[in-house]
Amino acid sequence: MTDKDSAPAPDFSAVPEALRSRAQWLVWRLEEKPGAKKPAKMPYYASGRRRTGGQGSDEDRAALVPYEAAVAAQAALKADGIGFAFLPGDGLIGIDLDKMVDAETGEVSPRAQRIIEACASYTEWSPSGNGFHIYVLGETGTAKDNGIGVEMFCGRQFFTVTGRHLDGTPREVAAIPEKVLRRLHKTIEAAKGGFSDKPAPPPKASPPPLSAQGMSERDRVLSALDAIDPGLGYDEWVQVGMALHSALGGEGFAAWDAWSARSEKYPGRPTLESHWKSFKAGRVGAGTLFHLAKQHGWKPPRRSRGAKPIYTPFEASAGEAIKDDGRWRFGLWRNDAGNPRAIRENVVHVLSEHPALKGLVAHNVFANKIEKRADPPWGGGLGEWRRQDTSELADYVANKAGLLMKLKDVGDAVSLVAWRQQVNPVRELLEALPPWDGVPRLDFWLIECLGALDKPYTRLVGRLFLMGMVKRVLSPGCKFDYMLILEGEQGHGKSSTFRVLSWREEWYNDTPFSAHLDRDARLALHGCWLYEIPELHGFNKADTNAVKAFVTQMEDRLRAPYAEQYETFKRTLVFAGSTNETEYFRDRTGNRRFWPVAILLADLAKLREWREQLFAEALARVRAGESVFPSREEEIEHCMPEQRQRLITDPWQDFITDWLSRPGNETEFLTYVDLLMTCLKVEPARIDAHGEMGRRLRHAMDALGWFPDRSRVGGHLMRGFRKRSIDLKQEKEAAKRETPF
To answer: Are strands 174-175 and 132-137 parallel, antiparallel or unpaired?
Structure first.
């Protein structure tokens, strides 16, 4: 231990962060009191208003300020110093050691040395220089004895802070050992003459009676007593003692003594004992005490809905191996009586700070739902948060924190905490993949794992489809409106392939597609990475158009169940299809979004073996900036021929092909009359006026390589078809050369 002369100069930067971070600071002034031997340290708020009334009330807590604001207020108000206020439920104890340093030699008393060493927490010199202030974590009752100069504060009073750290002691606030706390109480009680080696009687089985406000009468009396300034006049001081005698009986003497000792007028314990013996029960009741307290700013505690104790130590439930040091109670919003308020914000705090609940919930942005990321104390395991979990949480906070909450408020608190912790399990999976080994597999997985033909088209769409899956996860709502369609016989592993590519069963969906595009169809997309539309060949043209419109959308705007308003959800999935047919496209012009691939038999074991590196390669290529779309040239050269092969063939094509192959029918231009009447033998009266036959004929001729044109036949300009002499690519290039733009 160091002596007073070697104590460090005032340095508020030495104040631990555990104290600086709390908004429990004020300033104090030295003020003379009539009849007092020395000035008293009187607390003031940073606003300049004297601190009176119930300590720990909402008004009191709101007036206390952070550390920096208190330092600024000291300079602005020219106060004598700053102070730290102890509040109900803050989990802090202040131990004041007074007159512990010899004025001549500067030696620290052995009692002070033993207490300081046993507490092993942040300690600083008091302003007088002959004592010390120790800050520890814990909860206890206030105890004091001026004879030995030892006092413990908890939930009330304030310390004058000097920042003069005592050398050789910790610089952080530590928890006080339970045995040290018990010894301090015994030391103080022994000095008062009230210590006994006899074991304390067991606590009564029944709780103390409750007042109309829902708290025990004893706590209400002590709350009122705490609000009264012990430096009041003699007559009122005696009335307080008589009121405590009537309200608390023998227990009231200790409360009267501890309260009186806070004043400079304290006459000593023998004087109080003399007065106490003369008091008669019922002469002055608790009403007088409450009246005096109100005059000093005390507000009676509001009506509470319950009386569960909230300061009892946490006891882990069966199977719960989580140690609770009680620190989560520090940030709770409390009422004037110091009890936690039944508000949503307190549930948010408990869910965020309680060691058994911290990190329990998160918002899965991929599936748009709240999930349990750990096994809750009430059991049930991981998975989606359900209404039953909300009920269990409500019961849990009621028992652990004394909060009786409505289920809606508990649910709102869960939603808020989860929203602050957003997760995307698919993105987490991709980012946890091993690095790509550099071996190209994306171009060959359809060929090696599914038995598709090895050609540029198969390599192209196989690579782009898996890259599109990755792109949709990394950039939700990005444009990717293509569908991979697997063709093959039933039982050859088409749907199983898509399940393997989805990694998890819950990320795959094959719910029957609804052409009405209702809310349920869109909600089915949430939490889905790959959505298969099976049996495309069974769709009519209207259904096919609905599929194309559905696939091209990048986001969905809808109101989820129980939600209050519409929200926009960006898509994180890709679409795929399967069919047993080889011809199933009915629209002859709008199939560019479909990538059909014929397969033989899926080797699912090999696909699973390749899967990690397939997606690792796709991730590397997407992050390198490679496009997930085919170029226009690739579409014309590779994709469009494959799509034309899947068009449902019109029988007219066969009749026309056969007719053109006959001798004498070779020509470069055919009219509608030639085709309908001569070739197809359609009678003029049966040709419809709505143009359906004409449209059907145009589709058939287009498939055979003829395009609509006009030409003069027999002196008349006739509509018909002209045979293409060059392919589409050459025709487009020729048109560009002929165009002067």
So the answer is: parallel
- Cβ-Cβ contacts under 8 Å for 261 (sequence gap 6 or more): 144, 145, 146, 151, 230
Q: Which residue from 89, 143, 151, 154 is spatially nearest to 312, judged by alpha carbons?
A: 89
Structural contact between residues 158 and 26, judged by C-beta atoms closer than 8 angstroms: yes
In the chain, count of helices (H) and strands (E)? 26, 24
Longest alpha-carbon distance in the chain: 140
H or E element at residue 143: strand 143-145
What is residue 334's three-state secondary structure?
strand
Query: Three-state secondary structure along 156-191?
Result: CCEEEECCCECCCCCCCCEECCHHHHHHHHHHHHHH
Q: Annotate 378-393 with b (16+ C-beta within 10 A) or e (fewer).
A: eeeeeeebeeebbebb
DSSP secondary structure, 542-603, as one string: HHHHHHHHHHH-SEEEE--TT-SS-EEEE---EEEEEES-S--B--SS--TTEEEEE-S---
> Would you give the distance in Å from CA 358 to the centre of its chain?
10
E strand or H helix at 278: helix 269-278
Contact 733, 715 (CB under 8 A): no
Cα–Cα distance measured from residue 39 to residue 96, given in angstroms and rounded to the nearest whole number: 18
Distances (CA, A) of 15 to 138, 139, 352: 19, 21, 27
By C-alpha distance, which of 229, 235, 297 is closest to 263?
Answer: 229
- H helices of 405-540, in order, are 407-419, 425-431, 445-450, 456-474, 494-501, 519-523
Q: How many CA atoms lie within 13 A of 728 on its CB side?
A: 13
pTM score: 0.51
- DSSP, collapsed to helix, strand or coil, labels residue 131 as coil
Whole-angstrom CA distances from 185 to 111, 374, 457, 478 are: 14, 41, 85, 68
Q: Are strands 81-85 and 158-161 parallel, antiparallel or unpaired?
A: antiparallel
Q: Which of 508, 523, 530, 515 is nearest to 567 (CA)?
A: 523
Successive 10-residue mean pLDDT values, the chain, 741 residues: 44 84 90 75 89 81 90 89 89 90 82 89 88 90 78 88 88 88 82 47 42 60 83 85 85 83 78 85 78 80 44 38 64 76 90 90 87 90 89 89 88 90 91 93 94 94 95 88 90 92 90 59 75 69 66 64 62 87 72 89 94 95 93 91 80 84 84 85 82 83 84 85 66 44 30
CA distance 401 to 399: 6
Give the separation between CA 290 and CA 272, rounded to whole angstroms.
21
Are 547 and 590 contacting, i.e. CB atoms less than 8 angstroms apart?
A: no
Tokens of 578: 């399967």
| Beta carbons of 711 and 722 less than 8 angstroms apart | yes
DSSP letter at 5?
G
How far apart are alpha carbons 534 and 392 in whole angstroms? 41
Cα separation, 223 vs 542, whole angstroms: 76
CB 641 within 8 A of CB 455: no
